[in-house]
Amino acid sequence: SLKSRLSAFQRGKQFGWVFDNEKDILDFPDNTHLFGIDGTEFLDDKDVSAILCYFILWRVMNLADGRRLVIDIDEAWKWLENDVVAQEVKNKFKTIRKQNGILRLGTQSVEDFLKLPIAKTLIEQSATKIFLANPQAQEDDYVKGLNLSVEEYEVIRDFDPTKRQFLIKRQDEQVICTLDLRSLGNHNLRILSTGSKDIEIIDSIFQQDIPLEVKIRQLQTYYKEEA
């Protein structure tokens, strides 16, 4: 029963640590316009990932109240492995445009995404699709799974990843674009390509009891020296 399933999340029980705050302090203040939630620590934990994904996505989806909103779920197949979570996202996918919002689902693995029971519905409901370079692209995944033409598949497969090209498809229209970020400067590009070797430095900066503006300046200095 639902009661017995939820009892494991009571304080003192096996998963009591998951929702152990006296109050829900997950906050989205109006004066902050960009939020990021990293699911690395729990998405592979089969015991708690479903309920955590549901709670987080429920809180985020409730932001769709008419304000301009973009919800970006990267590696979406991992978030949608649970059927209940997937159904909620599927429902929101159909209505969010009426609420002045956009829901973008991203994946590095088309094969994993296509295994989702709701994959076909999500593909059909997606008005615009963006395809990055993928030299390992499989024809069946792109042509049969994503409804691309053979020519479109070959373009994506043959893109040179170093040229930052991508294909945008909307209904029967397609365009090839290039993402040129040279104007950002090398140190800002380094921020966008942060790797595991940078994590320790970043953590040490943000653990300091100093104003956020100072932390950002320290971070920029670090990347300028590394660029």
From TrEMBL:
<dbReference type="InterPro" id="IPR043964">
    <property type="entry name" value="P-loop_TraG"/>
</dbReference>
<dbReference type="InterPro" id="IPR027417">
    <property type="entry name" value="P-loop_NTPase"/>
</dbReference>
<dbReference type="Pfam" id="PF19044">
    <property type="entry name" value="P-loop_TraG"/>
</dbReference>
<feature type="domain" description="TraG P-loop">
    <location>
        <begin position="50"/>
        <end position="136"/>
    </location>
</feature>
<protein>
    <submittedName>
        <fullName>Type IV secretion system protein VirB4</fullName>
    </submittedName>
</protein>
<dbReference type="InterPro" id="IPR051162">
    <property type="entry name" value="T4SS_component"/>
</dbReference>
